[in-house]
Amino acid sequence: MRALFCSISTPGLLYPAIGMALELQKRGHEVAFVTDSAHTAFLAEHGLERIARGLRDGPSFAVAQWGMPLAVAIQLKHIEYAMAQFQPDILIGQPLTLGAYLAHERYDIPVSYTHLRA
User: Fold this and answer.
1) CB within 8 Å of 8: residues ≥ 6 apart
2) How far apart are CA 66 and CA 6, in angstroms?
3) 32-59 burial: b if 16+ Cβ within 10 Å, else e
4) pTM
């Protein structure tokens, strides 16, 4: 299985997604991330790939802008670019990754959402 993690760039959402991705990877699955470009090196330190949002990579998945229409459009375009590069079988998002909802609707790709519980 190839899982594309779509994560808001805040540590409280990104770090649990990294833990899940590492577990899937340990079980033989392929994983990649779409998240803000600021986390590229951090993901690489953990052996995880961040797919850029295109030739003109830049900010995406910022928590402060999660519901703004332009930010959601950027999320979707980032996910679409990553889908073309990585060919995922599933998207794994979070409640704030609205671009994943749209990609699911547009491309009929399965999507799962992580929920943190106290």
Assistant:
1) 14, 35, 61, 62, 63, 66, 94, 96, 97
2) 12
3) bbbbbbebbeebeeeebebbbbeeeeee
4) 0.94
**19/38 Cα distance (integer angstroms):** 18
Query: Positive or negative CA dihedral for 50, 56, 60, 64?
Result: positive
Tokens of 45: 């330190």
pLDDT in tens, 7-63: 999 999 999 999 999 999 999 999 999 999 999 999 999 999 999 999 889 889 998
Regarding beta strands 111-113 and 90-93, do their DSSP bridges make them parallel or antiparallel, or are they unpaired? parallel
From CA 34, how far away is CA 48, in angstroms rounded? 11
CA angle 16/50/100 to nearest 5° reads: 65
CA–CA separation, 2 vs 87, rounded Å? 7
Q: Please report which helix (H) or strand (E) contains residue 114, including its range.
A: none
